Amino acid sequence: MTQVRILIIFIATLSYWSIHLLTSSQAVLPADQNIFDVCSEIFNLLFLLAMLAVNISLAKRSYDADDGKWFFIGLLLLLCGHTHDLLDEFISINPLVISFVLENAANNLGVLVLTYALFKWSIRYKGQIKTLQEQKVILTSVSNKDPMTQLYNRRFLNDGFKKQLDEVDFAMQKLSLVMIDLDNFKSFNDSYGHLHGDKLIQHAAKVISEEIREQDFAFRYGGEEFLVVIEGDKSTAKRVANRILDTYRNSPFSIDGNYIHKTLSIGIKQLSCKLSFEESLNDADTALYSAKQAGRNCIVLSGETEQPYHYKQHSTATLVQL
């Protein structure tokens, strides 16, 4: 039997019972009637009927109607209780046990049933929220990672990470950009093929992820180029960059038993409130270009200037040859 039929039968039975009480019980004197209680009970009854209509409407759309059934039962009990509360304003219901059971007990039991229904619903809702959060973490992790290197990708840098940087006070927290590029990668690709080129990129990414600290972020910026955001000033960034360059240069990487000589070029720029992220990124990229022009296999620190760094301003950069 559907909830609609149950509600119709319940209201019909309650109406018949109410008419019976009105015709067979002693009326309360008008002077003893409280108009405010009458208005309050009428409002409660209308509200309960509206909630029952909503409950039935939601039950039709829900695949799990168990919680809805408990809400439905609780609302019916409250409807019974408040109907007798309203009748009690006009008649003296006798015997008193009828008033107690159909008024006080029905209201109290209705509240308990609704509380139980809310408890069950909250547990299921929290479980669904937890599942959605876990799925979101998985999906976000997958969408934010470069599939080849498992470093963060350019999309996360542009969509998520930059928004986090907008809240950073660079006077209190020092951050530095480290741009890294594999030297002579095009020649390597031409000589050994793209498959080995991908392996070299993966090898470089592994070195970078192992040499940076837990609080640092590593991105595959594009192709054979990487970006590392270091928590610290340019001196800290230089030490981390030194480790990356030295480890990569001395790490074993061979093709068909032949050891491959490989190096990196690195440009560093410390973030500041005077420049936007894009301007600082451009300075780091320009410092990387300076490292390429200086012979590769080295680190260039961009000079501290209020204007975006350009390669022609070579005097504002510090060269660290390793």
From TrEMBL:
Question: What does the record give as EC number?
Answer: 2.7.7.65
| Transmembrane spans | 7-29, 35-58, 70-87, 93-119
Gene3D superfamilies attached to this UniProt entry: 3.30.70.270
Gene Ontology molecular-function annotations: diguanylate cyclase activity
Residue intervals of the GGDEF domain: 173-304
**A UniProt-annotated Pfam family:** GGDEF
The organism's place on the tree of life at top rank: Bacteria
Which keywords accompany this UniProt record?
Membrane, Transmembrane, Transmembrane helix
**InterPro entries according to UniProt:** Diguanylate_Cyclase, GGDEF_dom, Nucleotide_cyclase, Rev_trsase/Diguanyl_cyclase
Cofactor(s) the protein needs: Mg(2+)
Catalyzed reaction equations: 2 GTP = 3',3'-c-di-GMP + 2 diphosphate
Protein name as annotated: diguanylate cyclase
